[in-house]
Design a protein that fits this description.
With about 425 residues, the chain is an alpha/beta fold. Helices cover about 35% and strands about 20% of the residues.
């Protein structure tokens, strides 16, 4: 027998006996159906789901069996709005002048692991210093444990907008004028340059802000800050490179302009009105509500000295409104994708958002689908993640109990698998 045929025979023999993993599920929410399936088995080979079978299947003697018969199994969860580089605290503003990039990177690895162990196997990081791009690479290479990261790199706003870090400070505090390189841009030409710079640095998605924000020193968090033409310049440039655009927006006019400009999602959407709802439905624009972030900043604003007065005021105005607006948007038929703004509140508590969504009128199954199949659609990754389906990534999580009866069970993740690998807190 020639060496070539011996190697070929060895290859086929090894493939024939490759270990499979059989995950026996007491209850299965697959992300596709609105009904729960009982006594199912998911078959995993390598990083991929290869089969879903009725009943409890064990495979052969060399195969691995995972017993989740007393748990509810579902696709790996997706949080479409996080900030892995940071976590809000009383010292957040001062930290920006003290922490080095290395400090930020080391703490971000902790936040990434917490997020993964909370059952979120994919996240969309919507803005940081650019360390988030390095985080994505480190996770991909297996250097650190964390969710699959889709990142915007630096987010982009107008001068004086949400991403302009010089707002509220004396002009001479900063040693250069903020510009496209910093994520601050005005007019078509500067915005096109800002988008191209983020793509050059490795961003997967573009994030802009069409209104002011809460956690900056500007006086108004809801006023519109880009024209429709400026937003179209961003969207067209991103589209040329195959990227989508997420838009931070609180005020109704800024939301309207963002939708008409062609963004893929509205982040927060605090003061969306009926016109915005209708436009979102017409253009298929997703709302990513981030209710937990709103509640968190409103709670923190009640603590004397936690925020500067201008931020505390905006936190109370915006934070108390998001849940109500979300409920109206859902009932109006706006497409919803799960997102929390993790980093504004403590990482790892993302699943509390499910409770707030249900409180606002969304059925538990719809809330779970918002964090699976809907979120995958928003990211343009429906062929890879978002459901328990043949050929998709083996991103599988499980909780004790039944989240359709008690949505709070989503907070207590009992099993986490990403790309066929089981993760623990050890």
């Amino acid at each position: 027998m020639s060496k070539f045929y011996f190697v070929l025979l060895l290859f086929f023999a090894t493939s024939a006996f490759a270990q499979k993993t059989y995950i026996q599920c007491g209850k299965l929410i697959d992300g596709n159906s609105n009904t729960v399936q009982s006594e199912m088995t998911i078959v995993v080979e390598g990083k991929i789901i290869t089969d879903i079978q009725k009943g409890y299947i064990s495979g052969g003697a060399t195969d691995k069996v995972i017993d989740l018969k007393n748990k509810t199994v579902m696709p790996g969860l997706i949080d479409c709005h996080v900030h892995l580089e940071e976590q809000g605290s009383k010292t957040s503003m001062m930290d920006g002048f003290i922490k080095t990039d290395a400090d930020i990177a080391y703490q971000a690895t902790v936040y990434a692991k917490r997020t993964l162990m909370a059952g979120f196997t994919t996240v969309r990081d919507l803005g940081g210093s650019g360390i988030n791009i390095s985080m994505r690479k480190a996770v991909q290479k297996g250097l650190i444990d964390g969710p699959r990261i889709i990142t915007a790199g630096r987010a982009i706003s107008a001068s004086g907008g949400h991403m302009d870090g010089s707002v509220g400070f004396r002009d001479d505090v900063f040693d250069h004028k903020m510009g496209p390189d910093d994520g601050v841009a005005d007019g078509r030409d500067e915005l096109i340059k800002a988008v191209r710079l983020q793509i050059k640095r490795g961003s997967d998605v573009i994030k802009i802000a069409s209104t002011g924000g809460v956690l900056d020193l500007s006086e108004n968090g809801s006023g519109a800050e880009f024209t429709i033409d400026e937003i179209k310049a961003v969207v067209e440039t991103a589209k040329d490179y195959g990227l989508r655009v997420a838009c931070h927006a609180h005020g109704a006019e800024g939301i309207k302009r963002a939708i008409l400009g062609g963004v893929t999602s509205i982040e927060h959407g605090t003061f969306m009105n009926e016109e915005d709802f209708e436009l979102a439905k017409k253009y298929g624009t997703y709302l990513v509500p981030t209710i937990i972030a709103g509640k968190s900043v409103a709670d923190s604003a009640k603590i004397p000295g936690y925020f500067p007065p201008v931020i505390a005021r905006k936190a109370m105005e915006v934070g108390t409104q998001i849940q109500s607006t979300f409920g109206k948007a859902y009932k109006a038929g706006v497409k919803i994708a799960f997102g929390t703004d993790a980093g504004v509140y403590a990482h790892g508590k993302n699943a509390i958002e499910f409770q707030y969504m249900v409180e606002a009128g969304m059925p538990p199954m719809e809330a779970i689908k918002a964090a699976t199949v809907n979120a995958a659609d928003l990211l343009g990754m429906s062929d890879k993640i978002g459901s328990i389906s043949k050929g998709k990534s083996a991103d599988i999580v499980a909780v004790d109990g039944d989240p359709l009866q008690d949505i709070k069970t989503m907070r207590n993740m009992a099993f986490v698998m990403k790309e066929g690998k089981i993760y623990t807190n050890q």
